[in-house]
């Protein structure tokens, strides 16, 4: 027992000496000096603000609070120095939320135009806020939620019905027969894959559907350009076996035929897609049946 | 324009019942009428006078073409699911008016100049007016 006590004591001393060594080692690395390159970059960005005069522009943003529903929706003005802000409308929105009004509510995620969250009406046009450059010449930029949509709060629309409509066209591959035991790939030629270009890039931001007057008046039953673009994308996919059934599902006066080629959809698509043409191709394929 | 959610948030929208007559056949017929009107109108402008064939064709196709156009407007702005009474009222009113117009075209073709001559006169007048405006514009 005495031997055990001795050994325990010695190990304790060894540990405590280790602790001392570790703390002294750490203190040597606590103060860090920035590299020279980092210093010049930091001074340059700070200097760019100091050199330019503040370019202050107004942002008129639609505000409505569901917690105080009796208060009518109104436009609230915010002043933003564009020289201390990123170039896109989303940068201005985040700046306002950070510095001026934390209650401003909007959807955003990727900040690069691929997720479709920040879709809103900017100075009369439906686009993505992260891709819309702030107009440095205009004195006032108006931000509204997507038109003719129920508003959850401020700039956030309720897209539930839109997603339900997307689900109704069955946006997934449907094959007649199950794949055999050894086969795992559905082969597709390069020419057939090319047909999907301009259709698969849709991010379902709802800019096009909410720009269509037919969708405003008949969103209950008219599917809208976004959903119809995707319906066409699955109709012409060479791997899909149910193209005829997909077309038959649209045989009614409302789902497709409320489109009167107004073409607001193609004009406003922030990804440069052409839903109007896709709808025309659907009508053409349905006409020949 | 109430937009309410039928069923749960996760259920797909139920598409309306399938009806080819109201769907693609209706669209085909509408385009067919529009397409036949093109050569008819050109023929009327080029060679006016009283041509019984073009008179008859115009007298039938024009009222139907206009009926389909107005019917599309009624379906757009007063759909049956939202305004059932107005929809029915306007639809029947439109059908009555189309019948009257059909009778009127018949009367015009038999007892008056005829639609071919009318189309020629109207379109020539439009061309003349636009040309006059172009010449007098500074």
UniProtKB/TrEMBL annotation, chain A:
Cofactor(s), by name: [4Fe-4S] cluster; [3Fe-4S] cluster; [2Fe-2S] cluster
Keyword hit for Iron: yes
Topology in membrane: Peripheral membrane protein
Cellular compartment(s): Mitochondrion inner membrane
Enzyme class: oxidoreductase
Residue ranges constituting the 4Fe-4S ferredoxin-type domain according to the UniProt record: 192-222
Primary localisation category: mitochondrion
Catalytic activity of the protein: a quinone + succinate = fumarate + a quinol
Cofactor note: Binds 1 [4Fe-4S] cluster.
Enzyme nomenclature, EC number: 1.3.5.1
One GO location term (cellular component): mitochondrial inner membrane
Pathway membership, UniProt: Carbohydrate metabolism; tricarboxylic acid cycle; fumarate from succinate (eukaryal route): step 1/1
UniProt-listed GO biological process terms: respiratory electron transport chain; tricarboxylic acid cycle
Any one GO molecular function term: succinate dehydrogenase (quinone) activity
Keywords: 2Fe-2S, 3Fe-4S, 4Fe-4S, Electron transport, Iron, Iron-sulfur, Membrane, Metal-binding, Mitochondrion, Mitochondrion inner membrane, Oxidoreductase, Transport, Tricarboxylic acid cycle
The keyword Oxidoreductase is annotated on this UniProt entry: yes
2Fe-2S ferredoxin-type domain residues: 57-149
Family per record: Belongs to the succinate dehydrogenase/fumarate reductase iron-sulfur protein family.
PANTHER family listed in its UniProt record: SUCCINATE DEHYDROGENASE [UBIQUINONE] IRON-SULFUR SUBUNIT, MITOCHONDRIAL, SUCCINATE DEHYDROGENASE IRON-SULFUR PROTEIN
Function of the molecule: Iron-sulfur protein (IP) subunit of succinate dehydrogenase (SDH) that is involved in complex II of the mitochondrial electron transport chain and is responsible for transferring electrons from succinate to ubiquinone (coenzyme Q).
Summary of subunit composition and partner proteins: Component of complex II composed of four subunits: a flavoprotein (FP), an iron-sulfur protein (IP), and a cytochrome b composed of a large and a small subunit.
Protein name (Swiss-Prot/TrEMBL): Succinate dehydrogenase [ubiquinone] iron-sulfur subunit, mitochondrial
Species the sequence originates in: Gigaspora margarita
From TrEMBL, chain B:
Superkingdom, taxonomy of origin: Eukaryota
InterPro entries: CybS, SQR/QFR_C/D
Subcellular location: Mitochondrion inner membrane
Record's keyword annotation contains Transmembrane: yes
Keywords from the UniProt entry: Membrane, Mitochondrion, Mitochondrion inner membrane, Transit peptide, Transmembrane, Transmembrane helix, Transport
Main location: mitochondrion
Recorded topology in the membrane: Multi-pass membrane protein
Similarity annotation: Belongs to the CybS family.
The protein's name in its UniProt record: Succinate dehydrogenase [ubiquinone] cytochrome b small subunit
Organism: Gigaspora margarita
């Amino acid at each position: 027992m005495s031997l055990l006590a001795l050994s325990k004591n010695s190990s304790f001393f060894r540990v405590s000496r280790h602790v001392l060594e570790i703390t002294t080692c750490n203190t040597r690395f606590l103060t860090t000096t920035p590299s020279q390159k980092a210093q010049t970059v930091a001074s340059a960005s700070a200097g760019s603000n100091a050199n330019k005069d503040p370019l202050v522009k107004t942002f008129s943003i639609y505000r409505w609070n569901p917690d105080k529903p009796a208060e009518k929706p109104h436009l609230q003005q915010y002043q933003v120095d564009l020289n201390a802000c990123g170039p896109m409308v989303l940068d201005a929105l985040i700046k306002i939320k950070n510095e001026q009004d934390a209650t401003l509510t909007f959807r955003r995620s990727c900040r690069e135009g691929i997720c479709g969250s920040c879709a809103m009406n900017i100075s009369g046009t439906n686009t993505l806020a992260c891709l819309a450059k702030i107009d440095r010449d205009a004195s006032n930029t108006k931000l509204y939620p997507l038109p003719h949509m129920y508003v959850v709060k401020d700039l956030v629309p309720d897209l539930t019905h839109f997603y339900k409509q997307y689900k109704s066209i069955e946006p997934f591959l449907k094959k007649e027969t199950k794949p055999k035991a050894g086969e795992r790939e559905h082969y597709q030629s390069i020419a057939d894959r090319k047909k999907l270009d301009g259709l698969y890039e849709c991010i379902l931001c709802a800019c096009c559907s909410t720009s269509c007057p037919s969708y405003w008046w008949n969103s209950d039953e008219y599917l809208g350009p976004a959903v119809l673009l995707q319906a066409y994308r699955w109709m012409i996919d060479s791997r899909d076996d149910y193209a005829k059934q997909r077309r038959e599902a649209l045989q009614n006066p409302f789902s497709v035929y409320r489109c009167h080629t107004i073409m607001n959809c193609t004009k406003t698509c922030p990804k440069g897609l052409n839903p109007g043409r896709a709808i025309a191709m659907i009508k053409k394929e349905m006409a020949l049946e | 324009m109430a937009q309410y959610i039928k069923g749960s948030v996760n259920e797909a929208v139920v598409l309306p019942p399938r009806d080819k007559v109201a769907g693609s056949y209706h669209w085909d017929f509408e385009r067919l009428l529009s397409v036949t009107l093109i050569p008819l109108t050109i023929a009327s402008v080029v060679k006016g006078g009283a041509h019984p064939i073009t008179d008859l064709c115009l007298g039938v196709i024009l009222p139907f073409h206009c009926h389909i156009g107005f019917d599309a407007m009624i379906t757009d702005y007063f759909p049956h699911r939202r305004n059932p009474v107005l929809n029915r009222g306007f639809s029947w009113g439109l059908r009555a008016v189309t019948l009257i117009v059909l009778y009127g075209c018949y009367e015009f073709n038999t007892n008056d100049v005829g639609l071919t001559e009318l189309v020629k006169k109207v379109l020539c007048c439009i061309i003349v007016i636009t040309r006059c405006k172009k010449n007098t514009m500074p």
